[in-house]
Design brief:
Shape of chain A: elongated
Strand content of chain A: under 5%
Number of strands of chain B: 24
Strand order of the largest sheet of chain A: 1-2-3
Order of helices and strands of chain B: EEEEEEHEEEEEEEEHEEEEEEEEEE
CATH topology of the largest domain in chain B: Immunoglobulin-like
Oligomer: heterodimer
Helix content of chain A: 55-70%
Protein name (chain A): Vacuolar protein sorting-associated protein 35
Family (chain A): Belongs to the VPS35 family.
Function (chain A): Plays a role in vesicular protein sorting.
Radius of gyration of chain A: 45 Å
Distance between the termini of chain B: 41 Å
Largest sheet of chain B: 7 strands, mixed
Distance between the termini of chain A: 120 Å
GO cellular component, one term (chain A): late endosome
CATH architecture of the largest domain in chain B: Sandwich
Number of domains of chain B: 2
Membrane topology (chain A): Peripheral membrane protein
Shape of chain B: elongated
Chain lengths: 885, 382
């Protein structure tokens, strides 16, 4: 008998033979039926079939044999004794069909109550040895396994369970051997093809272990003593990577997790004996997942968990042994395992940070051993390890990190061994988690009831550790920045380092996280703030980003002191001194910034000085305030050279000064404002001069600050000098007039007119010295100037109208209204895409595609708006009626 | 010759209780054309009396004169080819009857070489047969030396012959029957040997005695002379069996240097025809890519004088016992039921022997055959 050429033929042959077989069975011609069955089984001898094709045929034949089996069982007692048939089918000349028939008859016989089950089972499994071809053998044994599924010995006593498990194990061992052997069949160049085929067939072998787990059920003793050792021995002995990986995994998956807990020693020891090509990581992780599953299950069901042995300790020992025996293990693999063990430790012993400490120290050692080159390959793994982002067991990252930072020394050690970019990545993750907690956003997703009280810095050492961990970020140098150190541009000054930004945020976080019960006094808080400051100082140039945060915190301290001072009058002097001390610290900080960062930070330093001055003024610390103002001036004079910056700086100065109240004595105020105005009038550009001066005019016209209890009309001692105001306005107007760009000159005049109107509204003519005649004169001047502008415009309009008539006759809107421009107070052009939609404004000092006509519109429109305002004011204020438009 | 003349007398030989007697299906003799045809012959055992009735029927109204009616029982050995010895010379010494020809009574191609049984007596004195007449006959306790056998070159046949002697042509009628000899274990033929022959490769024996030619496998022609092998184990088997002790198994440790080393074992060396051959093959070393392995039972008929004997091997059973290539350490079980096959038990006489060999054949991926034969004794039991 021979098999078909193609799979299709084979299938149709099987179908045909099945039909014939069934017909014979219906006619009660068993011998014929067996003959057809045998013919059909010949198809399974075909050596050219791929595993998938073989499986297809197998399935067909399985179904057919099921029909036969049913018939056999039915007719056992009338004529066809199955014992006789069992012998009869063994005359089949070919071993494969013979064994399929034998198993079919044998298993049918097993269904008969009085059959000698044990003997039949033993005989069938023994005879299966006749098939040594891997694929055919595997399927044959799978057939045996499928057929005997419900037909092993009744599991009512220990012996039969043992027998059954032995039966399955024997079958498993043989299948495994065949499966492994498949790898070595055929030519060497088809090795990969073999591996692929083996993976397709693995389920056949794995199914045996599933069967075994069903038979063993919860019999731990049997499993531990009789079964697992044999299975593991098989896995070790076969020295085959595919097999070892797969079967170890299957063992972990199919047997109950309690079993693994109880047999952990042998499982772990075995993993050391596997082929070096086997991924240890994968194996260990599978095991850990199962063990963690145990904990979850136990917790869910509220059972008592088995604490008999320290799981972590066991894994730790294993890890050390692994590290010792396999120095070839890459850091990736090792870190994978360690991450797994971390997972285990966090699941089993969530509060034990020491476990993590040991793990980290091991990795750190490993990193040192490997040196930098090796570590660089595994950066992402180390980041995973350090951030634990992939560990689902970590429910509250801020607390996890907090504990790590404060309690786990080797976490920092390991972190410092990483590449700069990894360090930053890790630290960013950590800081973000803290900030997320602070903002209460991330918190909600992972942990419902955020118990924020836990996260408090309770000792200096904790803070020290915190800062130590952050140190890499503090001293981090942005390599890109380093490169273009040569050409120092303004734009660079505005570039913000994201890491430094994080640091400033974490600085606030730390100060907010201080445990108030430990750090009761402001002094102690200040001490910690100084600690942070000192660590930030290590950042060198970076302090320009980080110190402002420190300074801000000093301000908080000062404010606090001020509150306490008022609350406890007895300690007034103490607090006064403390405040002074704080200002000195701040001054120190600013000096540090200046010394370290030089030019790059002058703008910031200038502003910080002003803010300090303002604060000191608010606390009525006149001398301190003056000192900071004078510092600001010296920065302005010595270091601010760019005219735009100067202009901005002066505006800022004026704003700050205008709000001061304590400087009037000793004539501090007067000298400061005069100096400011003087600087304003000395600015490089006329337009800047003009604007700076008319803004400075406000310095002689104090306005109410409601927060300190001032009120317009009530308060009488406002610092106001109308004469000076007018002087300023006139100085400003001269500057505007001498601006040669007539559009801008007009615009400036309109701006001055607006300022004049402000004073006109807010004071009477006698005090402000800004009267109707002055305003009328100004309006006249503006009108004349605008006239000449319009003249220019009309000329151009007529020119364009002649060319534009054809193309634009449908729309009434003038093409010149397409864009609306206004001018900002700093001289920038603001392009409004749509009049109604101001959000689409573009701001620039120079607009390239701007037409002269559009520019002319700026002062004209501004003037129109101003006139409209005056007209509207006439209803309220009669004085406006005298203003001639 | 009888074809041309309508025989004046019909002779019918009927054994007592023939209808109910066990019959044996045997292939029709080669002379009768279709080889596949089977004939069914009544079975007579050794020592059994041969009784029956001979009926002579005369055609109605005829008279047949005769010189006497004789019945004889004959057992003969016939051969087609007799190496070196002509059948006539071989049969010289036999007690051939006067009218016994040199040609086999059953097969025209085969010549009779020996008539080991010839008994005869007259059923009826010379006279005249006028109507049908029956004569009972009996050969009491007839001893039969050999079992009936129908081989390639040799036949052992038994028949009853009734001859009506006449002045003209004698009229005779043959009735063949079949003989089984049932053996006790103690009576089995006694020369059990293991032989090795090879078409391509021979698997060497790693004998315990150490004959010393392990290194060079013998490659010989296809029909080499069977070699007696001084195998200790074999002789052990012999002695133990003679002592009536349970026979020791056949165990052999064989191989090809650096290529194959197997141990095989049959539970015993003697089997009844209904027996099961049970054994195992243990692979100690295998570098062959084995395609499959089969066990075959070879029946060797050797006839004639030793130097010029005609040896014909017939493969009676081919039975695949292993599919695929085993690795070191594998044990392959053997179980072969003999009962379902038509086998010939071992036989031995001056003119021929029938021996049975179990041959273990390994076929590798390139189609090469490696085999090892070992003799087994088959015998018939009740």
């Amino acid at each position: 008998m021979s098999y078909s050429e193609s799979v299709e033929q084979a299938i149709s042959n099987i179908k045909q033979q099945t039909v014939l077989m069934q017909r014979s069975l219906n006619n009660r011609k068993l011998m014929d039926a067996l003959k057809f069955t045998s013919t059909m089984l010949t198809e399974l001898r075909n050596p050219r079939l791929l595993p998938k094709q073989y499986y297809e045929l197998y399935i067909q034949i399985f179904d057919s044999l099921t029909i036969l089996s049913a018939y056999l069982v039915e007719n056992h007692s009338n004529g066809h004794h199955l014992a006789d048939l069992y012998e009869l089918v063994q005359y089949a000349g070919n071993v494969v069909p013979r064994l399929y028939l034998m198993i079919t008859v044998g298993t049918s016989y097993l269904k008969i109550p009085e059959s000698p089950r044990e003997e039949i089972l033993k005989d069938m499994i023994e005879m299966c040895r006749g098939v040594q071809n891997p694929i055919r053998g595997l399927f044959l044994r799978y057939y045996l396994s499928q057929r005997t599924k419900q037909l092993l010995l009744p599991e009512d006593d220990k012996d039969s369970i043992e027998f059954n498990s032995q039966f399955i194990i024997t079958n498993f061992i043989e299948m495994n051997k065949l499966w492994v052997r498949l790898q070595h069949q055929g030519p060497l160049r088809e090795r990969d093809q073999r591996t692929k085929e083996r993976k397709e067939l693995q389920i056949l072998v794995g199914s045996q272990l599933v069967r075994l787990s069903q038979v063993v059920d919860d019999n731990l003793k049997l499993y531990k003593i009789e079964i697992l050792p044999i299975l593991l021995e098989q896995i070790v002995q076969c020295r085959d990577v595919v097999c070892q990986e797969y079967l170890y995994d299957v063992i972990c998956q199919v047997f109950p997790d309690e079993f693994h807990l109880k047999t952990l020693d042998s499982l772990l020891d075995t993993s050391l004996q596997l082929s070096t090509e086997v991924s240890v990581t994968k194996i260990i992780l599978t095991l850990i997942t199962r063990l963690n599953g145990y904990i979850e299950r136990v917790q869910q069901e509220n059972e008592n968990r088995d604490e008999s042995n320290n799981i972590f300790q066991r894994f730790w020992k294993h890890l050390l042994k692994l590290n010792e025996e396999r120095p070839d293990l890459s850091i990736q693999e090792l870190s994978g395992i360690i991450l797994g063990i971390m997972n285990l430790s966090l699941t089993w012993y969530p509060d034990n940070i020491e476990n993590l400490n040991r793990l980290f120290s091991l990795v750190a050692q490993k990193c040192k051993d490997f040196g930098e080159e090796k570590t660089s390959e595994s950066e992402s793994f180390m980041v995973d390890l350090l951030t634990a982002q992939k560990l689902e067991v970590v429910k509250d990252f801020p607390i996890y990190y907090f504990n790590l930072i404060t309690q786990c020394e080797s976490f920092r050690t390991l972190l410092t061994l990483q590449s700069s970019s990894s360090q930053m990545e890790v630290l960013t993750k950590i800081i973000d988690s803290f900030l997320g907690r602070l903002m209460g956003t991330k918190q909600q997703t992972r942990n419902k009831d955020g118990d924020k009280s836990q996260l408090l810095i309770t000792s200096k050492t904790q803070l020290e550790r915190f800062l130590a961990v952050l140190e890499p970020m503090i001293t981090h140098k942005d390599t890109k920045k380093e490169n273009d150190e040569g050409n120092d541009t303004i734009s660079r000054e505005f570039t913000l380092s994201i890491y430094q930004e994080k640091l400033t945020k974490i600085c606030h976080f730390l100060m907010l996280s201080l445990d108030k019960s430990t750090f009761k006094t402001i002094e102690s808080e200040i001490e910690l703030l100084l600690m942070i400051k000192n660590v930030f100082h290590k950042g060198g140039k970076n302090i320009k980003f980080t110190y402002p945060a420190i300074i801000t915190n000093f301000w908080r301290m000062i404010r606090k002191c001020n509150i306490y001072k008022k609350r406890i009058p007895k300690k007034q002097i103490y607090y006064d001194n403390l405040i002074k001390q704080n200002f000195k610290y701040i001054s120190r900080c600013i000096n540090d910034m200046f010394n370290n960062c030089g030019k790059n930070s002058v703008d910031t330093i200038y502003k910080l000085n002003l803010q300090n001055a303002a604060l000191a003024d608010q606390l009525s610390l006149v001398d301190i305030s003056y000192d900071f103002f004078s510092e600001a001036f010296s920065v302005f004079e010595e270091s601010l050279s760019d005219s735009k910056t100067q202009f901005q700086a002066l505006i800022y100065m004026a704003q700050t000064l205008q709000k001061t109240r304590s400087l009037y004595k000793e004539n501090y105020y007067n000298s400061l404002i005069v100096r400011t105005t003087l600087h304003g009038s000395k600015l490089l550009k006329k337009q800047d001069q003009c604007r700076a001066v008319y803004i400075c005019s406000h310095l002689w016209w104090a306005t109410e600050i409601s927060s300190v209890g001032e009120e317009e009309g009530e308060t009488t001692d406002f610092f106001r000098e109308g004469k000076r105001v007018l002087e300023c306005l006139q100085r400003s107007l001269r500057a505007a007039d001498s601006r040669m760009d007539n559009v801008e000159s007009c615009e400036l005049m309109v701006e001055i007119l607006n300022v004049c109107l402000y004073y006109f509204v807010h004071g009477d003519e006698q005090t402000t010295h800004v009267g109707v005649s002055y305003i009328n004169g100004l309006i006249e001047l503006i009108k004349n100037n605008l006239k000449s502008l319009r003249l220019e415009e009309e000329q151009r309009l007529s020119e364009i109208d002649t060319t534009k008539i054809d193309s634009d006759n449908e729309t009434n809107t003038s093409p010149y209204n397409k864009y609306n421009y206004v001018m900002g107070l700093d001289g920038t052009y603001i392009k409004l895409g749509n009049v109604n939609n101001s959000s689409s404004a573009n701001i620039d000092f120079k607009v390239k595609d701007m037409k002269i006509n559009d520019m002319i519109q700026i002062p004209i429109k501004h003037f129109d708006r101003t006139c409209e305002y005056i007209l509207n004011q006439r209803d309220i204020d009669n004085r406006f009626k005298t203003v001639v438009i | 010759m009888n074809m041309f003349f309508k025989s004046p007398i019909d002779i019918e030989i009927l054994l007592d209780g023939e209808e109910s007697r066990k019959h044996v299906e045997v292939p029709a003799s080669t002379g009768s054309g279709n080889a596949l045809r089977k004939e069914s012959l009544p079975l007579i055992e050794d020592g059994e009396s041969l009784k029956g009735i001979v009926t002579l029927r005369v055609r109605e109204g005829k008279r047949v004169e005769h010189l006497g009616v004789k019945i004889s029982v004959v057992g003969s050995i016939d051969m087609q080819k007799v190496g070196g010895v002509t059948p006539s010379s071989a049969s010289k010494g036999s007690s051939a009857s006067s009218n016994a020809s040199n040609y086999s009574a059953t097969d025209s191609k085969k010549k009779q070489v020996d008539q080991f049984l010839y008994l005869s007596y007259d059923l009826c004195p010379p006279g005249e047969l006028q109507h049908s007449q029956s004569f009972p006959f009996a050969f009491k306790d007839l001893a039969k030396m050999y079992e009936s056998y129908r081989g390639k070159n040799v036949d052992v046949s038994y028949y009853i012959k009734v001859t009506v002697t006449r002045k003209s042509t004698d009229i005779s009628k043959l009735k063949r029957f079949w003989v089984y000899l049932y053996n006790d274990i103690s009576k089995t033929p006694n020369n059990v040997t293991t032989t090795k022959t090879g078409t391509r490769k021979i698997i060497n024996e790693y004998t315990d005695g150490g004959n010393g030619d392990k290194s060079k496998p013998k490659e010989t022609g296809s029909t080499s002379e069977p070699q007696e092998n001084g195998n200790e184990q074999s002789s052990d088997t012999l002695t133990s069996q003679e002592n009536g002790v349970v026979p020791k198994p056949v165990k052999l440790d064989i191989g090809i240097d650096n290529c194959l080393h197997i141990e095989f074992e049959y539970v015993k060396s003697q089997y009844t025809l209904k027996d099961v051959i049970v054994g195992r093959i243990y692979f100690l070393l295998t570098r062959l890519r084995v395609k499959y392995m089969e066990l075959s039972l070879i029946t060797r008929e050797s006839s004639g004088v030793k130097q010029n004997s005609v040896i014909i091997d017939t493969t009676s059973i081919r039975f695949e016992i292993m599919d695929g290539s085993p690795v070191k350490g594998e044990t392959i079980p053997i179980r072969l039921f003999l009962g379902g096959y038509d086998l010939t038990p071992n036989m031995s006489c001056n003119y021929f022997t029938v021996k049975n060999y179990l041959s273990l054949v390994i076929i590798d991926e390139d189609g090469r055959r490696y085999f090892k034969q070992s003799e087994v004794v088959l015998y018939r039991t009740r």
